[in-house]
Amino acid sequence: MLAKEIAKKTKDEGLFLKVAMVVLSQTPDVRKIQQEIAEQLGLRLEEESLPMRACRLRHGLSKQHKTLIVLDDIWKELDLWDAGIHFEDGQKGCNLLFTSRSLDVLRNPMGVDKNFRIEPLSSSEAMNLFKKMVGVRAEQAGFERLAVEVVEECGGLPIAIVTVANALKNQGLSVWKDASGQLRNSSPTNIEGMSEKVYSSVKLSYDL
Predict the structure, then answer these.
(1) CB-based contacts of 199: which residues, under 8 Å, 6+ apart?
(2) What whole-number distance in Å separates Cα of residue 90 and Cα of residue 70?
(3) What are the pLDDT digits (tens) for 6-23?
(4) Positive or negative, the Cα torsion across 91, 94, 99, 103?
(5) Confidence of residue 122 (pLDDT cuts 50, 70, 90)
(6) Distance (Å, rounded) from C-alpha 195 to C-alpha 190?
(7) Which of 66, 131, 164, 169 has the most CB atoms in a 10 Å sphere around its CB?
(8) In 67-110, which ranges are E strands?
(9) CA geometry: angle at 19 spanning 13 and 22, to 5°?
(10) Mind listing the pLDDT tens digit for each residue in 133-192?
């Protein structure tokens, strides 16, 4: 969500002429990533093999000016060269922006030079985001206390808050009570890059 807002703002303010954004998630599909980038930048990829598509994409990107490519929600290393995502050294104004739950993924395998850590939301910011997602129900009798408990369990993480809010927004009081209990009692499995708060919120969204 934050990456999407950044992409939109940079384009609206004229910092970049073109912006392409792709969400990777846990199981990135290189062919799909290539296609989405190409379509958003007005490039054509007609080749079938991944190496040839990567070569065509690299060539197309080498002709770009003032272009931003956003790769959102990186869980593990993505070989940018093999995927065809590459700007030449002399291409001023062309940039790559990555977001990830794990700083280690960006620092080590991806070799990112500049990292910006996003701090958790304050209590009031977290509650405002939750209320924006679920609507007036968060302020109704019986729901208000549960809203506070649920938001607290999300630990100020926007992805956790949005995931839980989307799961609860059309649900009744009994479901909210159950959700609050599940969030308190949930714990992460051995998933690399998965924080406890993110795990519990994602698990809840599937369990409801």
Answers:
(1) 186, 187, 188, 189, 191
(2) 20
(3) 888 888 888 899 999 999
(4) positive
(5) very high
(6) 10
(7) 164
(8) 67-74, 95-100
(9) 135
(10) 999 888 888 899 999 999 998 888 887 888 888 888 889 999 899 888 888 876 443 334
Label residue 143 exposed, middle or buried (CB < 10 Å: 0-12, 13-18, 19+): buried
| Closest alpha carbon to 120 in 85, 91, 88, 159 | 159
Distance CA 38, CA 20 (A): 8
Q: Which two tokens stand for residue 131?
A: 């209320």
d(Cα 132, Cα 130) in Å, to the nearest integer?
5
Measure Cα distances from 142 to 152, 177, 181 in Å: 17, 10, 15
Q: What is the pTM of this model?
A: 0.65
Q: What is the mean pLDDT of the chain?
A: 84
Other C-beta atoms lying within 10 Å of the C-beta of residue 74: 23
Does residue 56 have a pLDDT over 70?
Answer: yes
Q: Which of 165, 170, 197, 166 is nearest to 184 (CA)?
A: 197
The H-assigned helical ranges of the chain are 2-12, 30-40, 50-61, 80-83, 103-107, 123-134, 143-153, 158-168, 173-185, 196-207
